[in-house]
Amino acid sequence: MAFLDEFESILKEVVHAKRLSASKMTKLTEIALKSMQHDTQIVSILYRSHKSLPPAAKVSSLYVFDALSRAARSQVNKQGITGDINSPKGNSATFLLKVEGVLEGLFQDMVTTGSPEAKVSKSPLLTDYLLHVAAVALYELRERPNNCCHHLLALLIWLVSSRDLTCLVPVIW
């Protein structure tokens, strides 16, 4: 589990830094990909860290979730990996399923946080991130209609309708 201790240490450095470091993000991604058999622990570390962060560091945490999810998705596509959420040993596909399970909590946290950095109306970065997530959900829905992203799209629609996120409506509809 030395990989997970190193992962958590670098994660803390990344999210608490004033700027995202490409080299640290690369190192974090490499460690995560090598440790995908411990996907549950990785997602737990990510989520627990995100929830404990001060509001100003939460946007960086979302970028970490995004980078790791993209890397895992790339590995799934290149290697044709499939995942069973009930499997005792994790992989990139099960990691993505488990990240999907915490997305609602992440979005709720970002929407309700009191930091100006995390407010959608004041943060083009977060607005762009939500637009990206909405676009990915729509792509998945269109390309893989039997995939499990219907509830993600419903979540995004709910967030748009229940908060002042009207800038996202044209993208979702």
From TrEMBL:
Domain (CID) ranges: 1-173
Membrane-traversing stretches: none
Species classification: Eukaryota, Fungi, Dikarya, Basidiomycota, Agaricomycotina
Protein name, per record: CID domain-containing protein
Organism: Sphagnurus paluster
InterPro entries cross-referenced by the UniProt entry: CID_dom (IPR006569), ENTH_VHS (IPR008942)
